[in-house]
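Q: Can I borrow your eye for a moment on a structure tokenisation matter? Would you mind producing a protein record, from residues through to fold? Write it directly below this note and I will take it from there.
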Amino acid sequence: MAKTMTKTLTLIPAALGCRAHSGWAALVALGGTAQSPVILERLRIELADPGVAGSKQPYHAAAEMDFKYAEKFIGRSINEARQLARQGLRAVAGRVREKGYEVVGCGILLASGRELPALAATLASHALIHTAEGELFREALAHASEQCHLPVTKVRERELFDHAVAGLRVPLGELQRRIAELGQTIGPPWRQDEKFASLAAWLALVA
């Protein structure tokens, strides 16, 4: 009987990095080695349905509603953001795989990590409303990553460069230069969103 030979395809590791905003996130995919990563994707993924009024700022919208309806609206917004995040991550991972890379992790930038009170108290405070909206979209990205079986590397944004210097073992000046050079390989836009997301992806790639 003839033996059936199976060719095994070895994929190169890659990681995603995300910086969330109200209703969307900047995403960068890096692949290759931790020493010399390359940019594979740079894009914006939507985390809110523009056809649903208030979806980009759900807590602002909920603050104007009857509380029972506000609870339901926030619940739907959370589910919608999770679903859109999952769709976005899977689409990117699929395109990355077509290029010969396998996504092995996702880096997500966090805020200060302030703990939120109950919904009623949150909706009564404009400052907490802003905090809650940021947390909703960051949590959606983390939940989607877990649903896609991607280990999540979470880094507080204000500590990003400290973590990167320590985790990547690259001096700050050189790190900033290399991030700028990564942007040159793909062209504009290469704003703070893309720079920070690429650093988060780099840390996830190392992790």
